[in-house]
Design a protein that fits this description.
Blueprint lengths: L7 H9 L10 E8 L4 E7 L4 H22 L13
Antiparallel strand pairs: 1-2
Helix pairs in contact: 1-2
Length: 84
C-alpha cells in the first residue's frame, strides 16, 4: 500500500486559513498517548477570547474528523451491533 502524504499536521494550517476565530498565534499537534490500539492527539489553537476559542475548537474538530474519515477510513473503530 502506498504511503499517504496527507497528515493532520500538514492539513491543520489549511483548515485554519480564513477562520476569523483563529488569531494566528498558536497551532500545534501533540500525540499525548500512544498504545498498540490507538493514538490520542491534542490540537492546540489560539483565539482572542474563550468564546472564539470554543467555536474554533469545535469547528476544527469536525473538519479533522471528516479529514480522517476521508483519508484514513480504517482509523476509526467499527462497532457492529447484532439485534435479535
Amino acid at each position: 500500500m502506498p504511503e499517504k502524504t496527507n497528515s493532520i499536521r500538514s492539513t491543520l494550517p489549511e483548515l485554519l486559513q480564513g477562520n476569523a476565530d483563529w488569531d494566528g498565534r498558536v497551532v500545534n499537534v501533540q500525540v499525548t498517548k500512544a498504545t498498540e490500539h490507538y493514538k490520542e492527539i491534542r490540537i492546540l489553537l489560539s483565539s482572542s477570547d474563550a468564546s472564539k476559542n470554543w467555536d474554533l475548537r469545535t469547528n476544527i474538530r469536525e473538519k479533522l474528523i471528516d479529514f480522517i474519515n476521508n483519508n484514513y477510513p480504517e482509523a476509526f473503530a467499527k462497532i457492529r451491533i447484532k439485534t435479535i
